[in-house]
């Protein structure tokens, strides 16, 4: 979940941001068979109601990037999440931290954000077309559905069953065919009776999974409706804000409009409230996102990338650098008085070319 409202992930339709890794306890499972294509279709169809506790861990080794600290933390550390899911429009997810919790409630067309440290409940008006990912995106059912949607009709095969959360789970593997995505495989284990995803693992083109997430406890059926009501406790603040006001790192005043296309990929029109300067390019797992930043943030990000072993990228003006991991690539550039970040589960050469194509300065 977000650490305050100023730090959230990029949920690019590509969901590069939702990949994590926790070692599963390998308990011999009873024989479980499920046609992988049919199981994939059932998972895509929707998440059944449930209550559960999940843990995810990322091992991508990304450097700290100013304004994206929570994103980096989700991809390089362990995240603990308690979920209460009634339906697609009635759910709650709490990120459990050493100092409290950060919650997201979905109530019909509205979202509410609870910040324990700030002791404040915020009602958000509107749904952002793009946003920084948060802990709820790492829940196995959400991550599985998102990745399966992005992978389209890529080949799917069955995997050996596993014992997860006290259940015998059927497995499937999707192997992306797009040569420009860094994702080599997506492995999902789900309850064959309900099609509820219990564990997700994501690996690069080579090597073991670097990101995974698992439900360690789960109960079928909807939660108590009272748990889905976003009520501020006594003494807490309650405010209302526009979606752009809680966009955190995606909120850059007077940001230049995103280009209509980059590296031959048209900017994707997304449902929801657009954010200034933010653009999504391409479709599927190889999509990437453009995020505007201040000049100061861009300068510090370029320096951080260089210190972390990133490579300098030649651009017509300003400075640029790129950091790559087996699953995620990040490029940053200074642009006159502003800056830009590009992120995606995409071949790093794609971001090198895209960052160089950006206009060097804001339009007058």
For this entry, give a set of tags.
alpha+beta; 5 helices; twelve-stranded mixed β-sheet; 364 residues; 20 strands; outer membrane lipoprotein receptor (LolB), chain A; Phosphorylase Kinase, domain 1; six-stranded antiparallel β-sheet; globular
Short description:
This protein is α+β, with helices and mostly antiparallel strands and about 375 residues long. The chain is built from 5 helices and 20 strands. About 50% of the residues are buried.
SSE map:
Layout: H1 36-45, E1 50-58, H2 69-76, E2 78-87, E3 90-97, E4 100-107, E5 110-115, E6 120-125, H3 140-151, E7 156-164, E8 167-174, E9 183-190, E10 197-204, E11 211-220, E12 237-242, E13 261-262, E14 265-266, E15 279-281, E16 288-294, H4 295-307, E17 311-312, E18 320-324, E19 329-335, E20 338-344, H5 348-357
Parallel strand pairs: 6-12
Antiparallel strand pairs: 1-2, 1-11, 2-3, 3-4, 4-5, 5-6, 7-8, 8-9, 9-10, 10-11, 13-14, 15-16, 16-20, 17-18, 18-19, 19-20
Helix pairs in contact: 1-3
What does this structure look like?
With 364 residues, the chain is an alpha+beta fold. It folds into 2 domains: 36-228, outer membrane lipoprotein receptor (LolB), chain A, CATH 2.50.20; 249-357, Phosphorylase Kinase, domain 1 (2-Layer Sandwich), CATH 3.30.200. The chain has helices at 36-45, 69-76, 140-151, 295-307, 348-357, and strands spanning 50-58, 78-87, 90-97, 100-107, 110-115, 120-125, 156-164, 167-174, 183-190, 197-204, 211-220, 237-242, 261-262, 265-266, 279-281, 288-294, 311-312, 320-324, 329-335, 338-344. It has a 12-stranded mixed beta sheet with strand order 7-8-9-10-11-1-2-3-4-5-6-12. Helix 1 (36-45) crosses helix 3.
């Amino acid at each position: 979940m977000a650490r305050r409202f100023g730090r959230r992930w990029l949920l690019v339709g590509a969901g590069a941001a939702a990949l994590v890794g926790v070692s599963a306890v390998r308990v011999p499972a009873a024989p479980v068979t499920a046609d992988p294509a049919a199981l994939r279709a059932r998972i895509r169809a929707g998440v059944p109601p449930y209550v559960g506790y999940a843990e995810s861990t990322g091992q991508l080794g990304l450097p700290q990037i100013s304004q994206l600290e929570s994103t980096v933390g989700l991809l390089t550390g362990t995240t603990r999440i308690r979920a209460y899911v009634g339906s697609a429009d009635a759910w709650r997810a709490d990120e459990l931290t050493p100092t409290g919790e950060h919650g997201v409630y979905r109530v019909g067309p509205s979202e509410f954000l609870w910040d324990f440290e700030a002791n404040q409940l915020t009602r958000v008006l509107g749904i952002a077309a793009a946003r920084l990912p948060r802990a709820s995106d790492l829940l196995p059912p959400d991550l599985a559905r998102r990745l399966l949607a992005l992978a389209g009709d890529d080949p799917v095969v069955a995997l050996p069953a596993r014992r997860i959360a006290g259940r015998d789970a059927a497995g499937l593997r999707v192997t992306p065919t797009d040569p420009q995505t860094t994702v080599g495989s997506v492995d999902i284990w789900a309850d064959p009776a309900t099609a509820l995803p219990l564990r997700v693992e994501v690996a690069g083109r080579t090597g073991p999974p670097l990101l995974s997430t698992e439900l360690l406890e789960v109960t079928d059926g909807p939660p108590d409706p009272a748990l889905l009501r976003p009520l501020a406790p006594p003494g807490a603040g309650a405010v209302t804000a526009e979606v752009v006001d809680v966009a955190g790192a995606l909120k850059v005043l007077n940001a230049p409009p995103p280009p209509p296309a980059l590296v031959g990929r048209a900017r994707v029109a997304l449902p929801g409230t657009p954010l200034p300067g933010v653009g999504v390019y391409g479709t599927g797992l190889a999509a990437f996102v453009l995020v505007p930043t201040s000049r100061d943030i861009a300068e510090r990000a370029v320096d951080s990338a260089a210190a972390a072993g990133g490579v300098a990228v030649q651009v017509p003006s300003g400075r640029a650098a790129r950091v790559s991991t087996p699953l995620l690539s990040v490029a940053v550039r200074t642009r006159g008085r502003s800056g830009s970040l590009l992120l995606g589960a995409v071949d790093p050469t794609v971001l090198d070319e895209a960052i160089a194509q950006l206009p060097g300065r804001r339009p007058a």
